[in-house]
Every structure is written in structure tokens, then in C-alpha cells.
Design a protein that fits this description.
3 helices, mainly alpha
């Protein structure tokens, strides 16, 4: 017989959510730095910086979505 995992405790959820800022900030910063580097190499103004920022935002939002999906899956 398959056993159910124990329900997530509040401390477990809080511990997982403490990395939320890094989940959002790291892709944004890395995308912006990479875009800035590419702008310097190709002399394109701020095109790649803005694209890197946009891709970093999308990646951060997807990361938060996946984090919430796994954390609150047991509550349904």
C-alpha cells in the first residue's frame, strides 16, 4: 500500500519561500548582465540589455510559479 507523505508544515513552507527573492532576482540580474555584455560587443545600444531583462523576468516568474506549484500541491 502506498503511503502518503506527511503534510507540509508551516516551517517547511516558510523555509522554501525564503529563497523566493533569489528565485526572482538571479535570472533578472544574469539576463541584464549578459545583455549588457552583448550590447558592448555588438554596439547595439540597449537592445540586448532590455531583452536580457525581459527574459530574466520571464524566467523569474516561471521559477516562482514552479515553486508555488510544488509547495501548495499538497493543499488541494
Amino acid at each position: 500500500m502506498k503511503q502518503k507523505p506527511p503534510p507540509s508544515s508551516v516551517l517547511h513552507i516558510l523555509g522554501s519561500l525564503s529563497g523566493l527573492g533569489f528565485t526572482i532576482a538571479i535570472p533578472i540580474v544574469l539576463g541584464t548582465i549578459l545583455g549588457n555584455y552583448l550590447d558592448g560587443q555588438f554596439h547595439t545600444g540597449a537592445l540586448f540589455t532590455l531583452l536580457g531583462l525581459l527574459l530574466g523576468l520571464v524566467a523569474g516568474i516561471l521559477g516562482v510559479y514552479r515553486l508555488f506549484k510544488t509547495l501548495f500541491k499538497d493543499g488541494q
